[in-house]
Automatic annotation (TrEMBL):
Residues 36-55 are annotated as: Disordered. It comes from Nocardioides furvisabuli. Residues 36-53 have a biased composition (Basic and acidic residues). This is DUF1059 domain-containing protein.
Length: 78
């Protein structure tokens, strides 16, 4: 398991996500930002909008995705 924070994933806070793969933490971040949107959390809305745009334009977002994958790979195991 590795830990990646909201901030490392391009978000505004230090909430830690744990997962076996980069997809786990990216999905956890997606859920986290969705919950923030439901709660009307304005501080996290820009990050949420960015994440939504990534799903809408997957090809354009490939660079970000690769970066996150690499960042995850470079992290030490917990
Ligand atoms: Zn956050």
């Amino acid at each position: 398991m590795k830990t990646m924070t909201c901030r490392q994933l391009g978000g505004p806070c230090d909430l830690a996500h744990r997962g076996e793969t980069h997809d786990d933490v990216i999905n956890a971040q997606d859920q986290h930002l969705k919950a923030a949107e439901r709660d009307g959390d304005a501080a996290r809305q820009p990050a949420r909008d960015e994440m939504k745009a990534r799903w809408r334009h997957p090809r354009r977002s490939l660079g970000w995705y690769r970066e996150m994958k690499q960042a995850f790979a470079d992290l030490p195991e917990d």
